[in-house]
Amino acid sequence: MKKIQLFVLLIFSYQMIAQTGIGTTTPDTSAKLEIASIAKGLLLPRMNAAQRGLISTPANGLLVYQTDAPTGFYVNTGTSASPVWTRVNMDWTRSGNDISYTSGNVSTTGNLTGGNVASSKLSGFVANVSSEASSRTIALGDNGMTLKCTAGVTLTLPAVGTLPEGFNCMVMQHSFNQVSFSGTFSNRNSFTKTAGQYAIATVFYIGGVYIISGEMSN
Question: Does the predicted model carry a pTM greater than 0.85?
Answer without folding.
Answer: no
